[in-house]
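Case 399 in the screening queue. Each case pairs one protein sequence with one candidate compound; here the compound is flavin-adenine dinucleotide. For every case the pipeline is the same: read the inputs, emit a complex structure as tokens, and attach any notable structural observations.

Predict complex for case 399.
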Amino acid sequence: MSIIIDEELCTGCASCKESCIYGAIELENNIAKVLPNCTLCGACVETCPEEAISLERGDVKAQKMDLSLFKGVWIIAEHYNKKINNVSLQLLSKGRELADILKVNLSLIILGASFDDKLEELSLYGMDEIIYIKSPILKDYYSDLYTKVITELVLENKPEIILIGATPTGRDFAPRVAKRLNAGLTADCTGLEIDLEAGNLLQTRPTYGGAIMATIRTPSSRPQMATVRAGIFSMPEKVKKKVNIRKIEYEFEEKDSVSKIVKVISKTKTNVNLEDAKIIVAGGRGVGSREGFRVIEKLAEVLDAELGGSRITVELNWLDPDRQIGQTGKTVTPKLYIACGISGAIQHIVGMENSEIVVAINKDPNAPIFNWSHYGIVGDLHEIIPVLIEEIKKIKVDE
Ligand SMILES: Cc1cc2nc3c(=O)[nH]c(=O)nc-3n(C[C@H](O)[C@H](O)[C@H](O)COP(=O)(O)OP(=O)(O)OC[C@H]3O[C@@H](n4cnc5c(N)ncnc54)[C@H](O)[C@@H]3O)c2cc1C
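Case 399 output:
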């Protein structure tokens, strides 16, 4: 890649020079000149008011894309055992919001084998269109077939936004599709909005280990692709409306894929269902020990709640890994989240910030978790929780 300056368009205004934090642009005879220490970050391309600067990719000079050709929001469905994954339905709810702002259609794309009898039920989830790619082999997930089909569909239909669950399969095919389309892809988004002025998708995700939230946009190419974790957005309300259903049959055979699925082994189902839990009691390092967790468990029991925790409690082996909440754990949206002895590091917060009510118990009145809580109790959790348990038991008896 290299930066190209169109000398005919350049007016020597120096806005590119000012935008370059690396000092890699100089003015020579009133024309911008790129110096060898340029990092190709592209800041100057965006700043130039004359559009005199472009980023050349490989041998192909970056061409200006006609963004107006791209319309519509697509959600790529993930499914297992003939059931659409909740993350795809949650994306439909956010997708509806984005499509309404842009005044475009929302489409659900299903690559599968036996969804004919499910389409009517699925059409209650608020989309305008279902594109059902049907082939017997697509009852299972094939990375290369998904990549091929989705790339072809996108080239033909030109959606402007594509949202995919940040699941193991979504994380597998999304970058492959993005590479083939030369499209921008933001992984693991925790927020999606529309920039009302330019109509770009604003894709927010934690970065630098969660220390900051970065908002990424793809202003000069389409489609704009993003993967999103389960639990970030709520499930859509069911609505009755007319949905256009397009069924496209593909005649794939096993030999069309480089991979062959020999056997599908279902993961042993755990009883942990943090994503759907209504109440979660979570413990952090402040609990003090594995034995100390017993009091957290008791509070969870009395509230019929799921048990969760911070990453440190998993690392210390106080809690099972599938109960970790946060950036590298689960994203949860309960009605009530009780954080006990958790400081409130951003990596934890991104996993629980959408809880309806947050109660924090911490002995440090300045703990950051209080900034994210609706109710705070300052004190030792080992003194406070037993009192809470007794009071809850009393309320239960009275009921
Ligand atoms: C790339 C990356 C990914 C990460 N992913 C995650 C993730 O997914 N989830 C996650 O949780 N973390 C994650 N972390 C770790 C995160 O940065 C924090 O280190 C972690 O969340 C802190 O856990 P904690 O709040 O339990 O512990 P601490 O930060 O040590 O906080 C303990 C708190 O307990 C309080 N306390 C102590 N004793 C008591 C008591 N007796 N009663 C009441 N309060 C008490 C203290 O005042 C303190 O506020 C990640 C970090 C990185 C770099």
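Case 399 observations:
- The longest strand covers residues 106-112.
- Residues 209-210, 284-286, 310-312, 324-329, 341-343, 345, 347-348, 351, 361-364, 367, 380-382 surround flavin-adenine dinucleotide (CB under 6 Å).
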